[in-house]
Each structure stands twice: as structure tokens, then as C-alpha cells.
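[Meeting: bench + compute handoff]

Bench side (C.D.) handed over the final construct sequence. Compute side (W.E.) agreed to return the predicted structure before the next meeting so the bench team could plan truncations. Sequence as handed over:
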Amino acid sequence: MTQEPVDTVPVWRRYLILSRRARILLRHGLRNRWTRRAGLAVAVGLVSVTGSMVGVMLFAQSDLNIGPFKAEMSITPSADGGTEIDIPPLGSLHLDSHRGPLHLKVALGSLDQSRTEALIDNPSTITSAGDRAVEEVVDAVSRLGLRAAGLAVATTLFCAAFVFRDVRRTAASGVTALVLTGGSLGLAAATLRPDAISEPRYEGLLVNAPAVVGDARRIADNYGRYAEQLQQIVSNVSRVYATMSALPVYEPAGNTTRLLHVSDLHLNPSSWGLIRTVVETFEIDAVIDTGDIVDWGSSAETSYVASIPSIGVPYIYVRGNHDSTAIQAAVARQSNAIVLDDGLTEVDGLTIAGIGDPQFTPDKSETNVAGDDAGPEVLEASGEKLATTIRDSGKKVDIALVHDPAMAQPLSGLVPLVLSGHKHQRSVTMLPAPTEPEPDPSASPTPSPAASADLTPVTTRIMVEGSTGGAGLRGLENDAATPLTLSVLYFDENRELKAYDDIQLGGTGESNVTMQRNVIGLDDEPVPAPTPSVAPSQ
């Protein structure tokens, strides 16, 4: 049997043959009518998108007057949409006002001399300036939208004429640009959220935040009306410039109770300065600390809590898993401190209950006293203990304090608000509603503590604070430092939570911050499915 001859064609020659065949196939493909049409459509689309973006970025700007200010309004392409209001030197407001590929920016610039003098001579005109602001902004946005669409089409026509040098293709590009910009403006209008003005995200100096955003005063169901809130913001900023006084300009409502929620300070000395600044700036009525004020719970750390009296308002505290009983005793010795360990207190008309963390685990590498497996059961039992104390008191408790969120579930349906920490990450959720336990036919029909206290079940919200101390030294272990977070809670005269401000510092220092205003009831909040409850022990 003879052997087949080996192919002796060089590799380079094979590649040459293959490339020649590929060129022939490509030439035939380009001669195909549908291929040419598809390529032309892609080219028209690219020119239209590019021309529209260039036209919007370079020319979609206009000047307007808002109150005493000369402002510049512009539209830029964006994936997230939204609105940004720059208020130098106070900071900026960011509003989730709409969706779509267009971002609206309003930059307040110089003051109009004649308007400013009118404000100084007659401060009552501040109100009228706020009233006119809505009309002025709506009119300016409408004109800017039409201007952006026209300039986008004009720029696209110019680019298409230069690229294609063909009337039909240029016209097709112009029509495509008109559809793109018109659709983008239509999407922004369709997804408009007027209530977004009620929940601005503020960026700037901490002491200026109340002057721009204002106080969450008299927050009712109609708090989110666009016109009223825009008028209030313009009026607040106008007062700052008109009075030429030191910042902040802030007039807290007398019927609003403001609580500051802090947690997990972890021996960070800069936390006290931050807390004092917020207390003074927002005129806080009381501070709530949900634990882990130190790291190891040692006697050497007791001197850290000596700064509590400098806060100047009641300081309500529950023990965390890093806090020993010695630390709790040191906090209790401070003149303005209120320690809650399975007890209740009242501050400014609000009834507050709290209990300390049942576990002391400063070093997570060590097994806790009850054993790691017993941790969840111990935490839940502690929550049950506080729930029993609340029922037995017969009082309507407004806020319950725990350190670990795992302690909160037994409090569901019993209190409207639970505050906790421990996770070093901010979150706000609704606790699953408890279900009634199955009745035991053999048991005697004795009234439950809940029935004897005549407490109506409520929907319970749990607010987990981040770390006001930036997780202490642990916060420096990662590439990005853990931000310092704390929250201002606003309660009305009926002791109901109406709004809260989430404040965050991205690093060391306490000058530049981000503050997000959140209004209760503005958006529908999902309530988790009920979870089986355990009958309280007799």
C-alpha cells in the first residue's frame, strides 16, 4: 500500500489564498442591495446620533432669571436623567426629576443688582420672588427643550451634508435627529416626577445644608407639591443673599421634633465634632446612639465617652456588642446621658424604649459566651424581652432601640419605628408583619399581654444606621475608607415620623457632605410577607 503524499504548500501561501477568497466574498457582499442599504442606515444613524449629541452639548444653553439670580440652564446627554441645581457657594441640589437620556442643569450665577437691592429694601418681596420662580423655570425649560431640538437637527444636517454630500441622505439624517431629540424630550416629560423636589440630594458644606434644603416643617401628605417646594428653596437662598448674614439661615418649626441617629462610633475622635456640628446646625432636640461607641469595651476606653456632655442635648444610648457593662456604666455617669437597657424614657413627647446587645463580642475571632450557634436565638430572645416590657408598660411607644437588626423582628407590629446599627451600612426597610400563633386547645383562655395593654398593631419600619465613626480603624483596612454616616429624623406634633435626612461624609473632615432628604409616604413602600410569631412567655 502506497502512502498519501504530504501537502507541501507553504503556510504563507495558504493564508494568501484564504485572504483572496475573503476579499472576493466581501466584494460580492457589498454588491448586495440589502447589505448596502443596511450599511447606509447604520451610517445615517451614527451621523444623526453624533450630530445630535454635539448640538445638544455645545449649544443647548440659555440664560434666565430666578428671583434675584441670573442663572444658566443647560441640557446634556446622560444615561440617568435628573436635574442638578448649583447654588454657589452653598453647594448643589440633585433631583431625581425624570428618566431618559437628557440631564438638566441649572447654575445660579451672579446677582441682579436691582433685584437684590429690592430684596434688601423690602424683604416681603422674597415671597413674591418664590411665587414667580415656578413660572420662570417652567417657561425657561420649555424654551430650552425647543432650542435643544432645533440645534440638534441643525448640527446633524451640517454634519450629514459634510459626510454624505447627498440631499436625500442629509434629509434622512435630519429626520432621524428630530425623532431622537423629540423622543428624548418626550421620555423626560412622560417620566417627570414633580415630587422629586421634596427629596433633594444636597452636596456641599454641612453648615449650609439647612439654609438650602430648609426644615422638614409641617410635612403633610401634600408635602411633595412641586410649586410650593421650589418656592421655598428659592426663598431660602434669597434670604441668604438678601440679609448678607452669616450662614446658615435656618428657621426650624416649633412643632417639629428633630432627633439625630448615630451608631458605631468605634472610638473615632472626629465623630464628636461631627455630631456637635449637626446638633447645632439642625437644632437637634436629642441624640440617639444605637451602640458600639468603643472598640474593645476596656476600662481604658471609658474616657472616650466623656465628650457626651459637650453635645448639649439628651444623649440616649443602648449598648452594642463592642461595649462592655463598664462602658455602659461610664455612659450612664454623663450628665446628659440616658441609658436604656430593657427600659423606657420620654424625650420631647416621644416615648422611647431600648435594650442593650445581649452579647459582648469585641473580637469577632473569639467565640461568644453563648456560642456562635446560639447567637441568633440570644438576639431574638433579647428582642422578645423588650417587646414584653413594652406590652407590660401599657404605653404607646414611638421608637424602639436595639443594636443588632436581628433583635428587631419581635418588635414588629408593636412600635412604628425601630432604630439599630451594627451593620456599618445604611438601610431602611419594613419589618415583616407578625402572624398570630396557632391557639393551643389544651391551654386555658388567659388574655395575652398584648390584649391587656390594648395595643393596636402597627406597620414597623426599621432604620439601620451606618457607622458614624467610619468603622473606626477597621474603616481604613479597605482601599476606600468607610464613610461617616448619621441621620436627622423629623417628627410632627402627633409623634409621627414625617421625613429623615441621610448625611454622609466620604472621608476625614466634616466640611463636604452629601445629604439626601427622604419624605415618608411619598412613594409606596412594600411590606414584607408576615412571619410566624412566637407567643410571649408567661
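W.E. noted at the follow-up: The mean pLDDT is 78. C.D. will use this when planning the next construct.
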